[in-house]
Amino acid sequence: xxxxxxxxxxxxxxxxxxxxxxxxVACTILANCHWDGYLLTExxxxxxxxxxDGLLRGTKYYFCLxxxxxxxxxxxxxxxxxxx
Length: 84
Hints:
It is a single chain. The protein is of the alpha+beta class. It has one helix at about 20-30, and strands at about 1-5, 20, 40, 55, 60-65, 75-80. It is globular. About 15% of the residues are buried.
């Protein structure tokens, strides 16, 4: 899933990004309302340490839905079309 948002104003003191919880809600909806998911910055990596009210400033995140007891996980790839 791609959020085609632009953050091109580099001459201001504003910080741009996608609201963390908003991105999680969008991924949750696409994942058939699995509310137990979380965002990762790397495939099979740890959950992000960005607070729920923080901003996602990277360009690619993975929404991990669940992992079974064998370590098999289901992911949704979230690509943010941000330009700085």
